[in-house]
Amino acid sequence: MSVKLTTRQVGDVTVVDAAGRITLGDGASTFRDTIRDLAGGGHKKLLLNLAEVSYIDSSGIGEMVSGFTTVTNQGGQVKLLNLTKRVKDLLQITKLYTVFEVFEDETAAVRSFT
Amino acid sequence: METRTIEQTFDSTLESVDAGEEIVLKEAQDLGFDEDDQHKIGIAVRECLVNAVIHGNRYNVRKKVHLTVSRSPGRLEVRIGDEGERFDMSQLPDPLADENLLRHSGRGLLLMQAFMDEFQVRPREPNGTEVKLVKHTAKAA
Predict the structure, then answer these.
(1) How far is B3 from chain A (nearest CA, A)?
(2) How far apart are CA B41 and CA B27, in angstroms?
(3) What are phi and psi of B30, to 5 degrees?
(4) Contact criterion met (CB below 8 Å) for B93 and B109
(5) Does A70 touch chain B (CB under 8 A)?
(6) Cβ of B17 and A24 within 8 Å?
(7) What is the ipTM for the molecules in this complex?
(8) What is the residue-level pLDDT of chain A in tens, covering all 114 positions?
(9) Can you give the pTM of this predicted structure?
(10) Which of A34, B10, B121, B128 could bridge to B83 as Cys pair (CB 3.0-4.6 Å)?
């Protein structure tokens, strides 16, 4: 299964619920397009909920980083919510744990946006 | 159990990446790797196949990707070769350097090294590059 992304609004924060695989091909491009569309549409506070993401490869990681850069350059913020152990391991290996703010509680994550 | 070896040649397409990963994962499962290790093996093999298709063979329909999977008690060895330009690992940017953390790409080799017990890059004859990946089962390690 490729990635399935659904968005919902919590106050002025846009939560993106992701499920499935974010890998080279459809998964990574769907992810990239969704983040770009949201950023282009003025959504500058993005919270990526990765609870149901089973698999991310280096292309998926690359798209997360690109999304982070795009939104940050426009004055926005991208934060991560509910990482599985496997995704957490990937972010630690790639040192991206030092780049992204990561939360395990949605309410606390939403409150953290400035 | 003696060593069992599977050899397969693939076209330089992304479909080959899925097919190659599936073959390796079947062998890993039969060898008794747990789910976490299967996941790590899957990512490492996937990254390696993607490199062979995209960076090695550059999707060239005349160039093939060569997969060899050998399994013996407690040990899985995967060799993936391409027919492209050879490359020098020492010339690649360090993906963990602060100035490279936000680069879009360049993390595949890092993940292979992190998830496998052995990782080796060597020239493939008569052309291209071959990567050898080895993983031992927990019992054998």
Answers:
(1) 30
(2) 11
(3) -65, -30
(4) no
(5) no
(6) yes
(7) 0.91
(8) 689 999 999 999 999 999 999 999 889 999 999 999 999 999 999 999 999 999 999 999 999 999 999 999 999 999 999 999 999 999 999 999 999 999 999 999 999 998
(9) 0.93
(10) B128
